[in-house]
Design a protein that fits this description.
403 residues; alpha/beta; TIM Barrel; nine-stranded mixed β-sheet; 18 strands; 30% helix; globular; binds pyridoxal-5'-phosphate
């Protein structure tokens, strides 16, 4: 792979750019696609791209093009987004989060009538009934994918490791919803999704939670066979009961290795790994290269070893913690101040071992998460061989805000 940009490279390609600016190193982005596809090699599974972790049409298309037949479909996050993707020439969209509101149901039915291959997650009777009603009034059939909870419960329901998403835990429960769909009409169950968040989203080499790392590692390891056994059990039960599944989706970047070995899945999802935000440095099972960055202007120097940058308070969502802050990346050795963190309009960075940039120079940061970076910027500068080769709009730059 080409070398990652040094601070001097950044000075050169950012010279003349208005800051704050966000950029993606395509050499690293493409290499990360290669690393993820390698894990799927020989598994007969395809890779579905989680669009929430990219939020840029040009880069979604790049992944689909570069990945060839190994990459198939998008995992979207709202119906409006799915419509936007379809308008932009993308198809095979699984909306991974349910909705029942009338405008979404109407739009989903319209998309289906236009011939889009779009499906949406459902996990209860309300979801199935809302989809069925929309499908029937449009004279079509909406596609539902049932989410099966993959939380790890070593002691039953008193202790759950995983995310609170779906109440569906068994093949019987999936089949009940599929039978309901057949009865109400206007909706059909075409697949299942089992997302093992306690593996895919749990860092086990996290410098911000050092004491917990061994426990998190053990939890991930204990959970893996449990997820594989339960997902396979659901698939087997449904096959025995005549429910044909076109999609059995699992995984995320943090679990591509284990999900790609799970025979019951037809596909694996990944998104964040392509940008490799700093949270993805803290997984012991996958090695990726930082690809997405933002540059702030150093505008003042309040002390001998500190510069204060304009902007920077781009905090990631999720459980509150220091690992949700962006990290200063270049020049090397910069650190945020615990008392100020990354501020709404100003972010001080201390360089205890020298390297302090001059006022007017950039400080390069990495966001903690992937797609959320794009909610802060209208465009991404695309870098190749340490030169800007293109600039492309983010969803925000396209005037879109889906959540
Ligand atoms: C259903 C589902 N699958 C997969 C992912 C993982 O995506 P990523 O690779 O961006 O971590 C997520 C992330 O939240 C998700 O909700």
């Amino acid at each position: 792979m080409k070398r990652s940009p040094t601070y001097n490279d950044c000075l050169e390609f950012l010279g003349g750019e208005r800051l704050p600016a966000a950029f993606v190193n395509l050499d690293a982005f493409d290499a990360n696609l290669g690393v993820i596809l390698k894990k799927l090699e020989g598994s007969a599974k395809t890779l579905r791209i989680a669009s929430k972790s990219i939020r840029c049409i040009a880069l979604l298309k790049r992944l689909l093009e570069k990945g060839g037949a190994a990459v198939k479909g998008i995992m979207g996050y709202t119906v409006e987004e799915a419509a936007f993707l379809y308008e932009n020439g993308l198809d095979d969209i699984l909306i991974a989060y349910p909705s029942v509101q009338a405008p979404d149901m109407k739009l989903l039915a319209e998309l289906t009538s236009k011939g889009a291959d779009v499906s949406m997650i459902a996990d209860c009777e309300d979801h199935i009934r809302a989809m069925g009603a929309a499908g029937r009034s449009a004279g079509g059939e909406l596609q539902a994918v049932i989410e099966v909870d993959m939380g790890y419960r070593p002691l039953g329901d008193t202790l759950v490791f995983g995310v609170r998403r779906s109440p569906i835990r068994s093949g019987e429960a999936v089949l009940r919803l599929a039978r309901l769909a057949d009865r109400v009409g206007g909706v059909k169950v075409i697949g299942i999704m089992g997302y093992e968040a306690q593996i895919a989203g749990l860092t086990d080499r996290n410098p911000f939670t050092k004491g917990l790392n061994p426990i998190k590692k053990m939890l991930r390891e204990l959970s893996r066979p449990d997820v594989a056994r339960r997902r396979a059990g659901v698939v087997k039960y449904l096959a025995e009961n005549g429910l044909v599944l076109r999609i059995v989706n699992g995984g995320g970047t943090g679990s591509v290795d284990s999900t790609s070995r799970d025979d019951s899945c037809t596909e694996v999802t990944a998104g964040s790994g392509f940008f490799c935000p700093h949270i993805f440095d803290y997984f012991s099972n996958i090695k990726l290269t930082p690809a997405a960055f933002f540059a702030l202007q150093a505008v003042r120097a309040p002390t001998a070893d500190t510069v204060t940058c304009a902007g920077g308070g781009y905090i990631a969502s999720g459980e509150i913690g220091a690992d949700k802050l962006p990290v200063p990346y270049l020049p090397r050795g910069g650190e945020l101040l615990a008392v100020e963190g990354a501020g709404e309009v100003q972010t001080p960075v201390v360089f205890k071992r020298g390297n302090k940039p001059a006022v007017g120079q950039p400080v390069i940061f990495r966001h903690a998460k992937a797609g959320e970076l794009c909610e802060r910027f209208n465009e991404l500068l695309l870098i190749k061989d340490n030169h800007i080769v293109d600039r492309v709009p983010t969803y925000r730059g396209d005037g879109q805000c889906f959540m």
